[in-house]
What does this fold into?
Amino acid sequence: MNKLNRIVTALALSFAAVGAQAAAPAPVKNVVLVHGFFADGSGWKGVADILTRDGFNVTVVQQPETSLADDVKATTRAIDARQGDSILVGHSYGGVVITEAGNHPKVAGLVYVAAFLPDAGESLKDLADRIAPATKGIQATADGHLYFDPARFHADFAADLPAADARFMAYSQVMPAVQAATTPVSQAAWRSKPSWAIISTADRTVSPELERTMAKRAGSKTVEIDGSHVAFIAHPEQVARVIEQAAAAAGK
It folds into this structure.
């Protein structure tokens, strides 16, 4: 009888172990990268190369910046194209996009890089008006678009890049529609999803103090980088490390 009991117990433990393995969530191996205003997806190359080397499936969204709704659709399309859950990463205005798009059920976590973290009913402009950035380089066109003054671009947007690289970014910048900056988010994904925030301490395009305030409100795990607004380009190793930590934590 004792032998029978031992067999039954062993079988029960075996089934329990199998059940636990089946219930364990799969690791998050998809990363979706979303750029911000005045830039495009090519800026993510350094981060994308590191993530790809480390076994992640990377998608870089080239959203049109014609409206928040259009940019959310472009991001949602990228999420749907991958099997399994994704980590959403947004730089600058990309933080607004992932805050809305991150409500998608296949999003496991959010990473904000020198980004805006709006709550429901808030727009990028609402947040920027609370703590103004150091730069005065953002201007509007007569037909309702924004651009960054090329004369200020290196110092105020990309100070930790070589001057020639910053100059090319200034000449090739995307000019977003003003309405993308003034449209409020309808639901903030960080209220239901874990989030991480990278603060760029030398940022002149988004106030570092605003970045800290928004991250604190969202309960984000924060990391500070001594970098400009484009720290994700100048310091890809540090940014990729945070993304990988987020993927590991979200998969538990």
Observations:
- The chain is about 45% helix and 15% strand.
- Residues 15-23 have pLDDT under 50 and may be disordered.
- Residues 2-23 form the longest helix (22 residues).
